[in-house]
Records
---
Amino acid sequence: MRKIAVITGTRAEYGLLYWVIKEIHKAPELELQLIVTGMHLLPEYGLTVREIEKDGFPIAERVRMLLSSDNEIAIATSMGQGMIGFAKAYERLKPDIVLVLGDRFEISAAVSSSVPFNIPVAHIHGGESTEGVIDELFRHAITKMSSIHFTSTPKYAERIIQMGEQPERVFCFGAPGLDSIHKLKLLEKQELANELKLPVERQWGVLTYHPVTHENNSGRNHVETLLNVVEGFSELYWILTLPNADTGSRAIIKVVEKFVHNNSGMACLFSSLGQLRYLSLLKNAAIMVGNSSSGLIEAPSLELPVVNIGDRQKGRIRAANVIDVPVCDQNEIETALNKAVSKDFKESIKGLKNPYGEGHTSEKIVEILRTVSLSNLSKKEFCELSRRSG
């Protein structure tokens, strides 16, 4: 039986991986080895390992790596602790393939640890670009340490081949996170309002702001500017979610918590919603604001207007539902919000085609994991341009 070690470190990433994990778990020829790490194991981020347990997936290993700080030395030290933990996990589990998604430092540590063991890595969402965060560097490093590549758009597949990866090992199947939109029965507004205790009679706005890690100490000022604008849109009820555990996240959390405390009549805060409730929220919201990748990847399928602030998602392909505000300026943000909630803009994005695909990605990924030859899979060969063009 082929053993597939799947790494998950954040609530968002687990939601994107859910159907892939489910397909691996039910495949008779595959053994799921789920390794849980990072934010999943921290109470301050919702202890989301409980959601994984509730879903019924067996957890093969818990790798604790995050320190109770978010500065540069803590992140680097966490990576070192993670590498030690992943090495012990690989030694015990002896997986045939390690499967990872994305570009975070936890994933970089997991992949780096696999190299001495000669374990081939399959990477989802490579070839993308997020110029405002250090994840940009991790992503491409992960690509070069990976043997199988599952990309979300043809452009990203081209980039990976441009990096010298073998074209026959690059598979463009779309974004697996879209599978949930097509497979789950998303909740209607009244049902979701009852579950989350939200005012059903008001329109909802969703706000998530993550640190822009290439801009040291900018997060607090940026989120304060954003919330100053949002406060003026009191006709909307705002649902805020916590940022990822990146450098500077705790400063953002303090600002967000203070805003919600002072504006309890128009805002609430959740550490984690789970995939069903989060996507149901996007389905029933009037607008999404901040710098989350879900505004670019999942929101187009739900025809949700998105105001994307700053550089965190700079370089990513986006659909017409996204209004970019490159500089975190109060007047620019206010203008963008007014445009996003306007009837004309909402009409203009009806029938929008999502550049990240139409779902049904997970089955295709798992079929490759099931059938790919393991012979020399971890051996890397740089594919020269002459061979690619030939």
---
Amino acid sequence: MKTKIKKLLFEYTRNSRITTKELGKRIGSSQQSASYILNILKKKKMIESSTPIVDAVKFGFVNVLVGINFIKTDQEIEKEVIDELKTINSISGIEECKEGVDLLIDYITPNLSAFNKIHLEIIDRFSNKLRAVFVYPVIVNHEYFKNYLVRKYDYTDIILFGDRELVEISKDETRILSELIKNPEKKLIDIVEFSSIPIKSVINIKRYLEKRSIIRGYTSILNNIKLAINREIILLKFFGEGIREIDKFSDYSKYNKNIIKFQKLIGEYQVCIVVESLDEINIIKEIRENFPIDNYRIMKSEKIHKKIYLPIDE
């Protein structure tokens, strides 16, 4: 992958609302060149979608990670199931894997009781097609930028689903937030035309949502296959006496250029990390050499079919 493309992907996943003028500056190119490369990457579906990073805990939601296997491997059945799962509002993420598990599903629901009801309904609906492998509520989620794409790293730590600080937002604020979730790259003037809210109010509401850390940023979803990006999701179980090492491991994750997500879980495994690289991934050996790992599960990603951070009512 060319250096300029790697820089552009880094900047665009760090802020998908960046202007092409600023994008050009950051990748050392003209606005026209940056715009051309960006459009080509979108046209070829190397950049598939964008989404605002919304901290759903602000609205009282919880996050649950679920592993799913197909009972019978059949491409038509798999596509049918994935397409239907994509329409379920409470499912915020669907990732297809080629090893370790067939699907990784992220739920965002008002509480665990609501999750349990929705999840059981799905399992019952697809009882002859799906089997749940594991269910892990997420305590906290740390997201990092794709530092493996560049030489100058940005170690920003975006923390989601941490301490609950609930907020209430107005009807207009809800409308603007919904529009940004549906189309994060939508120009504010277009939101004005759709919502009939004055431009000054739209600008102020967007700033307010960002200032209150409801919107933590704007990112994009990449087609890892087309970009030759290797991606693994690794579950880690620490030895009993090594629980105190989890905080040290959190620091290790933050400053490791290939780790783009660190989660604390409730269940058999206490930690989940997401690792990406342009080379073969061999991080588990290093982790086991430096931390007291009792057990681990590696899931090799194939494709991200859905990723949002907050369910929205259509």
